[in-house]
Amino acid sequence: MTAAEIGSYPAPPGGRMPGVTLHENEIPIDEDVVRSLLREQRPDLASLPLSPAGAGTENVMYRLGDELLVRVPRTAAKAAALRKEQAWLPRLAPLLTYRIPEPVHAGAPGAAFPVPWSIFRWIDGAEPGPDTVRDWAALGTDLAAFVRELHGLDLMGASRAGELSWYRGGDLKACDEWISAAFGDCRTTVSAGLDVDILERIWRDAVALPEPAGPHVWLHGDLKPTNLLVERGRLRAVIDFGALSVGAPDAEHATVWDLPPAARRAYWDAADLDDHTWARARAWAVGVGVSGISYYWNTYPAFVAECRARLENILGDAATR
Predict the structure, then answer these.
(1) Which class in CATH covers the domain with range 31-121?
(2) Aminoglycoside phosphotransferase domain: which residues (predicted)?
């Protein structure tokens, strides 16, 4: 089994509402568009087999031959993430134990598509799930090791500015206004089956905490299961660095609530973080979950379900900190 959706939230069949785009100003993408770009800019690759390899919230992916993956951004705004990956992933990869995406070609705007695009090396592996992981505690420990390693890397002159500044590496207070609006949206959609009041209290309690005081670090930004690849049940690669940024590490730990309980406990034990960091991480998990439900409610039911499952894990997990 292989998985190389180097883009966030690959959609299962029926995952998005038919005929509905996810964002304003979304650019149509299909196989003809990709073929046209390849003929213009990489004619040496244009005759290779091309097949869909996932469609996420930010990119559409096509497998190209056996060894490559084409990633095309849905909007012009999403293209900035590709430029960032092209610049930084080759510098980070030699310093990391686990494999990360390898850029092969930085595509330029073409006649059929007006913004940059990318080709990456294909990575074999499987998305973590009940059919691919038996020892969830081991995977949680692996993920904590990756995070510790990434956060320990030298910034190599990078700083929290421009493309390397993203909201999840900042302060909760800066997001309070729009997250509060998302809580209101959730009360009108899923409140019957989800205790939004408790979730909002978790958010408010964390917003009242002091801001993170530690040094800025490299952040992947979205370490959810769909951005991990496993081999024989153990972590093999971490993909989709579109949210790569520099900032406070708290939000990086939020995706632990997307994992089964055994993985969460192992991650907590291996990470050994203080209570305030965990409280802020949990609040980030809440904020990302409610805002995802709010934004994608009418367009992407599979992603809404994913956000809801994360929130249910937070509500039901007595071990959360």
Answers:
(1) alpha beta
(2) 51-284
